[in-house]
Amino acid sequence: MRTTISFTDNWMFNKPGEAPESVTLPHTWNAIDGQDGGNDYWRGTATYSKPFAKPELKDGERCFVEFQGVAMTADVILNGKHLIHHEGGYSTFRADLTEALEEDNLLVVSVDNSANDRVYPQMADFTFYGGVYRDVKLIMVSAEHFELVKDGTPGIKVTPDVRLREREAHVAVETWPIGGSEVWLEIQTEHGKEFRKVEIGNGHTYTNIILKNVHLWDGLDDPYLYTVTAKLLKNGEVVDEISTRFGCREFHIDPDKGFFLNGRSYPLRGVSRHQDLKGKGNVLTYEDHKADMAVIRELGANTLRLAHYQHAQEFYDLCDENGIIVWAEIPYISKHMSNGKANALSQMKELITQCYNHPSVVCWGLSNEITASGAVTEELLQDHRELNELCHELDSTRPTVMAHAFMLEKDSPLIPIADVASYNLYFGWYLGELTQNEQFFDEYHAMYPDRVIGFSEYGADANTAFHSSQPEKGDYTEEYQCVYHEHILKLIEERPWLWATHVWNLFDFAADGRDEGGKKGENQKGLVEFDHKTKKDAFYLYKAAWSKEPFVHITGKRYVDRAEERTEIKVYSNCEYVTLLVDGRELETKSGKTVFTFTVPLVGEHIIEAVCGKCRDETVFRKVAEPNLAYLFRKQAVINWFDTADYDPGCYSIKDTMGALSRNPRTAAILGRMMERMTAKRGDVAKAANDNANLQKMMAGLSLESLIKQAGDSVPAEMIRSLNAALQQIKKES
């Protein structure tokens, strides 16, 4: 019978130029330098080695080592014999140790996360942590056993076909035994166990089981899971056993009505998630995964985009158990590589093979913003066609999807390759105005009414230290993040044809190339800070819209000192009414939905309470004579950038549009130097996107002043004045 043991203790980590270090796996070498900014985290090749005694094997038993995640490329060597080379940092793979075992053994894993031109990802707005960062196990099996090696297979594949009218499911179960004489299947249902004997043919078994009065996997309402166990027999004796859970659900997507689950409309509204944590990198424990899921459940989201790679199997399990609909994808992202096709196909095979049985997964993501750093070429199109075909070969039950960068033209030939599409839009943050988001989607839906379209990314960075009573784009305040998400939430609620929407992001995450918004090495678009605990105000906006658990939340609690005579106080709640009390006295009761706004006079320090039935929240606001500069990301005064009295409208200035400045060779050179400085603060993806022709077209109508304003104090006032002075020396053509 199969024996599985943990294989995580007593490893030696060796990084070039440093003394060897004893470590317990999982482990990453970028937990600190991958999160501190500078885009200088160490990427290279390091080794993990472990001495161990030969396991006791009998009667032809075999010994495998299982790695659940090694980033990004791994070579496994036992006693000097190379066993396997694996490319892809997010999937499970196994190596057969048996033939190379000696009495005393040394297992070495050479791990490489350095830059190359063949293994995805190589350009993206997140840190590519290196290391053996998920669990490692030793598996001993009989000579006759279920397949372990091919594409990291679980050895068993379950395909439910739900017939809603008949209230039954036809469940196909496949296994891949090596040796043995027969397979017995055992299905655990709520009514007991069902058994089925299956004959082996050419190393494969297939059977179809009908479940009458099927108990549906029904999303958040009832995520019921069946369990099927496969037992491999030899001469009547069980020699190997594996099991998996599965769920029976039917879904489809309508271009005009959105997502349907088990015959009913089920709008997918949720968030995206990266797999890292402040101070720990990507080394997450099962407890960390459970804590993340608790945050998701509190939020009330019913869908997750697990970006931008395969996540830990434990987390897919949690999604199954909690009824969360999942978009799963590979890290074919930001930059197409001519030498990367084989790796993209390989990572997709592993994603589908390893995640196939999870009922939570409803689509396979081919790529993300793949045109961010380059044009649509025939090679890129062909790679996507082959990926799409592979997905349908491996799985005929789920659609494919792509997430497109906002600068990709609506009529691009790339879009219809996948079955469904979604766009990543950031109007109202990176450029443009908030209203351009609904304009974009309405135009697309009118152009292609028979296509499915969704909203795969949207967000605005917020640092919980920054606040304003007059929030605006680029100030990194919690208040502007709230304004942004209030607008987008309304957009989404008015467009039921958006098949799925995903906030970018649930949590702040490491992007070592970033230096903005008062923090280095972090993307701060999360609804929750990088500690995965501190919830920003915008979190409670979505909780008010999606959660059924009654609550009230006063926004701006961290914005205590306020200089205005009368201040606006917003309360987020899913209650029908909210009462606001000031210093124990009722100010006003308002009815409404999600957002409740009150105006309160400030004359000193006040205790503010929001109440609805048993729900209560409380905070303190204080009137101050002058604004507290600690709340401001942009501390330099905009009006002092240059003296308007000396401004010559006949010459160029920072008030001119990007398009106008680009058309003049002299001003274009000045603009280029400024843009290089500004995009350097936002990492490699921003620098690459700066060369995107369609993005330049979209930015042409924006003033240079508006972009500088969003960059905040990262562009010093003296430099802005010098820039404007240089532009003022260049006369406009009449």
Kindly describe this structure:
With 734 residues, this protein is an alpha+beta fold. It has 5 domains: 140 residues, Sandwich (Jelly Rolls), CATH 2.60.120.260; 93 residues, Immunoglobulins (Immunoglobulin-like, Sandwich); 297 residues, TIM Barrel (Alpha-Beta Barrel), CATH 3.20.20.80; 70 residues, Immunoglobulin-like, CATH 2.60.40.10; 91 residues, no CATH class. It has an 8-stranded parallel beta barrel, surrounded by 4 helices. A 6-stranded antiparallel sheet has the order 3-2-4-10-7-8. A 5-stranded mixed sheet has the order 38-44-43-40-41, with no helix packed on it. Strand 24 and strand 25 form a beta hairpin.
Tell me the radius of gyration.
Answer: 28 Å
In terms of quaternary structure, the protein is single chain
Helical run tally: 13
Uncertain runs with pLDDT below 50, 5 residues or more?
none
The CATH topology of the largest domain: TIM Barrel
Span of the ends, CA to CA:
86 Å
State the CATH architecture of the largest domain. Alpha-Beta Barrel
Report the principal-axis shape: globular
Structural class: alpha+beta
